[in-house]
Every structure is written in structure tokens, then in C-alpha cells.
Design a protein that fits this description.
The protein contains 15 helices and no strands. The chain is mainly alpha-helical. The two termini are 21 Å apart.
């Protein structure tokens, strides 16, 4: 009962966070869909995709390691993590800024360059409070983390909505990323009074880098899997049709994916804490049962997608309705794969986690390269078929894991 109460508390606070984020996201989506052309909408979405792929490089996996490690390792890991995080973020900011022109040239869309360059500035802000955020999650202080992160996402979304309403410029989206990073620091600066000074310990850093790289590899593959359809679709579809696909994705699986992320953010610290305190078999079964319920929610969303899109956006996006409804179902295999990944990570089995995400991302990329779907329905149907392969792989892995949870 105590485990159920804690898990419910974690999930509920992350759902509060997600509720704030989703409500503000709908406002932003409404404004962007109303004021931007399909081409501009697609440009903004592609810039955000590129930025998120760079951002995943800054996450490394240090946070997951700090949340999962034993108590006696925390202080040294945190001290070395600060040093590592700053180095990586500065490097990624430079790489993103310098390669923005190449990305714009690759996609034959020169509006991309300035958007990606402006967003690169945000990487230089987050390390100010990175370790504070990790320690909040490790302590299962999800109330503070949930409310603060929800406020930050809402701030970014409303910044975009108000800015676009006033100026109707795609640059507002890039400025919002930088403003949100500053707001994130303000929210988490006072979350902990404990000061951690940067420190370099060769043995600690070696282990931290080794495990973090495995976690980073898994996260990078996960991020690529989430963004791969947009990256391939931007090349396979016309700018007009890609804008329609981007809208359908934002209004469907975009909502489902952020709900999944919020849910997994609540589950991971819970599982790590339970594993540190001893037998966690019952808690693990409980988490799997809750995951199944969340998957049922995506089926309901699929049935409601056409209705709420028409209600909020009118007839302009009618061509996106069926695609959006189908994409909602893709959130199910995505969540299943991500939850099994979370299970592996909580066990400290970072290598197997990396293998799982590699298989999922690899099958999706291979399907795009071989089939090269050239229509909206073909792209969605292909992804649903690949999602079925993910579910089969996860089922086989879970059946094996039950013998040594």
C-alpha cells in the first residue's frame, strides 16, 4: 500500500506538470496553426527537432546514474558530474551553432539556420542547476519537480503564443527556448541549499563516463527514434504535406509522448529507490500494471483525436484528422519500449538498455530507408508495423528478465 501511494503521488504530480504543459501547448498550437503557413509551421517543427537532437547530447545519462546509484556514491558522483556537464554543454552549443548552416542547406530551407543558432544559446544556461534537479528526482521530491517543470514548459509555450500573436515571426520560437532555460534556472536555483563544488577524481570520472555513455547512447537512440519520422518525412514529402504531418504529430502522438515522458519521469526514481531498499518485485509488477492502463488511455485518445482537433482548429486541418488518429496508437509501442528501458536502467543494466533502444531505432530507420514511404498514410502504417516488432521484442525481453529482476 505504501509503494502504491508513493507511485501514485509521483505520477499525480508529474500529471499536474503535464496538465499545465498540455494546456499551454494547446494555446501555442492554436496560435501557430492560425498565424503560420504550412511551410512556416513545418520549418519551426523541423528546427525544434534538430535542436532536440542536439539537446539529447547534453543529457549524457549523468542524471540517471545519480538517481540510480548507492547512497555512498552520491557526493563524489555529483561533484564530478558538474564538471562533466559543463564541458559537454559548451561543446554541444558550439557544434549546434556551427552546423546550423549545413542543416539548412541539407533541407534546402535557409530559415532553419538562424533558428537553430539562437536555440544553441540555451545549452549554456541549464548546467547552472543540473545537479540540483537530479537530486530532487533522486529524493522522489516529485511535487516540487513536477510543478516547477510544468511551470517552465507552460512559460515557454505561452511565450511563443504571445510572441507569435504580436510579431508573427518564426524567430519567437527560438527566443522562447532561451527564455525558458533562464526561467528553469530561476525555478530550481533554491531547490536545494546544499552546495556541490566541481571536482575531478579519475576513478570516479572513469566510471561515471562509462555508465553515462551507455545511458546517453540509449537516450540518443530513443530521441532519434522519436524524431526519425520527421527527419525522413521532411525529405520524402513536399513542404506543404510535411507541414500537415507535423501538425498531426503535434496534436496526437506529441501529446501522448509527453504524457509518457511525464509518467516515466515519475516511475524511474520510484523504482530506483525501491531497488536500493531491497526486494522490489511487487513494486515492479505494480508499475507494469499502471503502464498497461496508460496504454489504454492512448486508445481512447485515438478515438477522440478527430473530434478534439476539429473542435479546436476547425476545418483547416481536416486532411490531418485520420493521420492524427492513427498516430495516437503509435504511442503504445513507444511507451512499452521506453518502460522496459526504464526497468533495465533501474536495475543498472545499462548495456542491455542500449541494445534494446538500438534495436528499436535501427528497425525504424531501416524501414524508412528500404520502403521510403511517400504519402502520409504510408508513413504512419509503416511506423505502426515497426511498433509491433518493438512490442514483440519487449515481450521476449520481459519474459527473460522475470527470472532475475
Amino acid at each position: 500500500m505504501k509503494a502504491l501511494k508513493q507511485l501514485a503521488s509521483n505520477v499525480s504530480w508529474m500529471m499536474v506538470s503535464e496538465g499545465m504543459a498540455r494546456a499551454s501547448r494547446l494555446v501555442t498550437l492554436f496560435v501557430l496553426a492560425s498565424y503560420f503557413t504550412n511551410v512556416h509551421y513545418g520549418t519551426v517543427m523541423l528546427a525544434l527537432v534538430c535542436h532536440e537532437l542536439f539537446r539529447i547530447l547534453t543529457r549524457l545519462g549523468v542524471g540517471a546514474k545519480i538517481i540510480q546509484c548507492e547512497e555512498e556514491q552520491v557526493d563524489k558522483l555529483c561533484a564530478n558530474a558538474i564538471l562533466l556537464q559543463w564541458g559537454v554543454n559548451v561543446f554541444v552549443a558550439i557544434v549546434q551553432y556551427t552546423t546550423a548552416g549545413l542543416l539548412a542547406q541539407f533541407y534546402n530551407n535557409y530559415d532553419l539556420a538562424v533558428l537553430i543558432q539562437l536555440m544553441a544559446i540555451s545549452h549554456l544556461i541549464y548546467p547552472l542547476v543540473t545537479v540540483k534537479v537530479f537530486m530532487l528526482q533522486r529524493a522522489n521530491r516529485m511535487r516540487y519537480y513536477g510543478i516547477a517543470s510544468g511551470l517552465c514548459v507552460a512559460f515557454e509555450n505561452l511565450f511563443v503564443a504571445v510572441g507569435v500573436f504580436i510579431y508573427e515571426s518564426i524567430l519567437i520560437v527560438a527566443f522562447a527556448k532561451v527564455a525558458a532555460a533562464l526561467f528553469w534556472v530561476v525555478l530550481f536555483w533554491q531547490s536545494s541549499s546544499k552546495r556541490v563544488e566541481p571536482q575531478y577524481d579519475a576513478n570516479v570520472m572513469k566510471g561515471l563516463v562509462r555508465d553515462s555513455l551507455k545511458i546517453f547512447g540509449s537516450e540518443a537512440l530513443k530521441s532519434f527514434r522519436w524524431q526519425a519520422d520527421s527527419l525522413f518525412a521532411a525529405r520524402l514529402l513536399s513542404p506543404e504535406i510535411f507541414g500537415i504531418y507535423s501538425f498531426a504529430k503535434s496534436a496526437s502522438i506529441g501529446i501522448g509522448q509527453t504524457l509518457s515522458s511525464a509518467y516515466l519521469s515519475a516511475v524511474y526514481p520510484f523504482l530506483c529507490q525501491r531497488r536500493r531498499t531491497g526486494n522490489w518485485v511487487k513494486e515492479l509488477r505494480l508499475a507494469y500494471a499502471v503502464t498497461a492502463l496508460v496504454c489504454l488511455g492512448f486508445i481512447v485518445q485515438s478515438q477522440l483525436a478527430e473530434w478534439y482537433i476539429q473542435l479546436l482548429f476547425g476545418n483547416r486541418w481536416d486532411t490531418a484528422l485520420l493521420i492524427a488518429s492513427m498516430l495516437c496508437l503509435l504511442a503504445i509501442p513507444t511507451l512499452i519500449a521506453d518502460f522496459v528501458s526504464t526497468h533495465l536502467r533501474a536495475r543498472g543494466d545499462h548495456g542491455l538498455d542500449l541494445v534494446l533502444m538500438g534495436c528499436c531505432s535501427g528497425t525504424l530507420a531501416l524501414a524508412f530507408l528500404i520502403i521510403q514511404p511517400a504519402s502520409l498514410t504510408a508513413i504512419v502504417n509503416m511506423q505502426l508495423a515497426v511498433g509491433g516488432i518493438w512490442c514483440l521484442l519487449c515481450a521476449l525481453m520481459v519474459l527473460d528478465l522475470k527470472h532475475y529482476v
